[in-house]
Amino acid sequence: MVKVQKNKCSGNLCSQQTELFIRHLQVEKNYADNTISAYQRDLAKLLTFCQGSHVAEWRDIDAKILNLFVMRLRHANTSNRSIRRHLSSIRGFFAFLLRKGVLSENCAKDIASPKLEQTLPKTIDYDELNKMMQLKSSRFDELRNVAIIELIYSCALRVSELVNVDISDIDLKEGFVKVMGKGSKARFVPVGQSAVAAIQRYLLKRPASKSGALFINLKQNRMGVRSVQNIVKQRALEVGITFNVHPHMLRHAAATHFLQSSHDLRSVQEFLGHKSIKSTQVYTHLDFLELSKVYDDCHPRAKK
Fold first, then answer.
1. How many domains does the chain have?
2. Annotated catalytic residue: which of 144, 248, 252, 257?
3. pLDDT, tens digit, for every residue of 211-269?
4. Dihedral of the CA atoms 282, 283, 288, 292 (nearest 10)?
5. Is residue 118, in this structure, part of any structural domain at all?
6. Which of 69, 165, 255, 296 is least surrounded by CB atoms within 10 angstroms?
7. Structural contact between residues 142 and 150, judged by C-beta atoms closer than 8 angstroms
């Protein structure tokens, strides 16, 4: 939790206002830790830049200063996506200062965000994914690693969601798992039979632990995000996959395969826990690419 300084700095350019804003995001908005960390980094850069430009108060910041800040980011080879995130953080912060009476207007609204080139999420072929889910032994760590991959793919989980799943969150009889998504929003996701079987095998070898976590490490503690990332990467290398595989790639594969089978974008949105349908629509492009590939291979009138 962010510690708020006791001294008041009103509209002066100091870190207390940003700390109050971060507390607001934590307590009132209930934002995820990664999102809050991004806000902190972005606003810290703005604060350093403005202090270096001899800006005395937040109300002294105008569109010209913000444009100079954006130019500084560009000169540092910051990507357009990161610049857009910086501007989004600043707009949110200035809107907060506006409500608090520190600012009389939000000049960040006048700054245009750079356009993004549409990049499709990287996915993995099902045959390659299937190799990663084949058991090689009955060791605890082997059973656990396969169960992790099965559950991520079966439920299209974010890695942060996976590591927070407790044993009490999963109902293997009914085939459902309770997942805590972004913004601490819970959703119930169906678990496929293959994933259920993998988890059952793993639980038979799982040592007794005080931790209620579904997946634990060799020290019987809840697994962390980095550990799961390393497991997925190492597993892919072991089965001969030469490109870098990460957990989010399994989530993308699950969403793509679900859409290809159901053609129901709204169901995929609920499946993934997306707040906006816009976040889900990228998978329609992946589905179209797959359709184009099949057309080129099979249609008699396709260009060869």
1. 2
2. 248
3. 899 999 989 999 999 999 999 999 999 999 988 899 988 888 887 777 666 666 666 66
4. 110
5. no
6. 296
7. no
